[in-house]
Amino acid sequence: MTRADNLALAVPVRYVRISAAPEVLVMGPGDKIEISNINTPGRTERVDRAKYEAMRESLLAVLPEEAPGQLVAEAKSALLPGLPEALFPGGKTAGWWLKAVQLDLEAKGIIARAKAKPVRLRRVAE
Fold this sequence. Notes:
Layout: H1 3-10, E1 15-17, E2 25-27, E3 32-36, E4 44-48, H2 49-62, E5 70-71, H3 72-79, H4 94-107, E6 111-113, E7 120-123
Antiparallel strand pairs: 1-2, 3-4, 5-7, 6-7
Helix pairs in contact: 2-3, 2-4
């Protein structure tokens, strides 16, 4: 048994290194993903991958490409029925996840907001 094996047995970890490269990981049941925020460039947060990906898929499915886009409240109403009940029971925490995904996708240039208020979102054409 190697030293790494001993450490894996002695200390509970969520991630197991599978190569010499630290960025190659096998993800466990608590999978996390790093997200950005357009309002704080360079800063990232680690969040639940399953909830992030479910919200991302739902949000991108309801947003139009055409300007001026869709109001955030309209987008939320449209995506709520499509969210997995197991991840968002009764839509609980959907508002927080919508905002987190919105800010991350804005930072990555996948969606954009209209210049005028109230906030309207649209997908950026590929």
